[in-house]
Amino acid sequence: MPRRKPLELPSYKVRSPRIYIDADACPVKDEIYRVATRHGVPVSVVAGNFIRVPADPLIERIAAGSGLDAADDWIAERAGSSDIVITADIPLAARCVKAGAQVIAPNGKPFTEQSIGMTLAVRNLMSDLRASGEVTGGPKSFTARDRSAFLSMLDQTLRRLLRERTKN
């Protein structure tokens, strides 16, 4: 009896990109919805509690719970190498970068493996200075230039992920 060839399994399929938004204080949600809709990419809008989102099958609303880091934990548990995370939360950004996700701040600044260590260290230093009573000022105002830089970075990152997906 001739030997059968082993069953060939389909080639590895790369998961479609998804955008996760740390939504509680995100000033660029509308821009994300527009870019995601244009590219047909699903979006998970994650907040501690209820948050209004457009009625669109690509956009899902997640109420992660009222725990201290419930939304952050929800995102960090799911974000992977084919995903984009939008957050200004540096500890969440560090967790997502470690998981291989592309992470972008609302001002367009990408968090990368090369930059996240220093960014986290500066954040911790500033936190310690505020706790000791030093006046360090607050964050800079969000500007039209920030919005433009964000849109450019999101579109560029999404196009790269979609190209990588079609190569595999």
Task: Give me some keywords for this one.
168 residues, Rossmann fold, six-stranded mixed sheet, disordered N terminus
CATH C-level name: Alpha Beta
The global form is globular
Low-confidence stretches: 3-14
Write the CATH fold name: Rossmann fold
Radius of gyration: 19 Å
Instruction: Quickly count the helices.
Output: 5
**What quaternary form is this?**
single chain
Described by strand count, sense and barrel closure, the largest sheet is:
6 strands, mixed
Q: Kindly give the count of domains.
A: 1
Describe the overall structure:
There is one protein chain. With 168 residues, the protein is of the alpha/beta class. The protein has a single domain, classed as Rossmann fold, CATH 3.40.50. It has five helices and six strands; from the N terminus they run E-H-E-E-H-E-H-E-E-H-H. The protein has helices spanning 29-39, 70-78, 90-98, 113-131, 144-167, and strands at 19-22, 43-47, 59-63, 84-86, 102-104, 110-111. The chain has a six-stranded mixed sheet with strand order 3-2-1-4-5-6, with helices on both faces. Strand 4 (84-86), helix 3 (90-98) and strand 5 form a beta-alpha-beta unit. Helix 1 runs parallel beside helix 5 and helix 3 (90-98) packs antiparallel against helix 4.
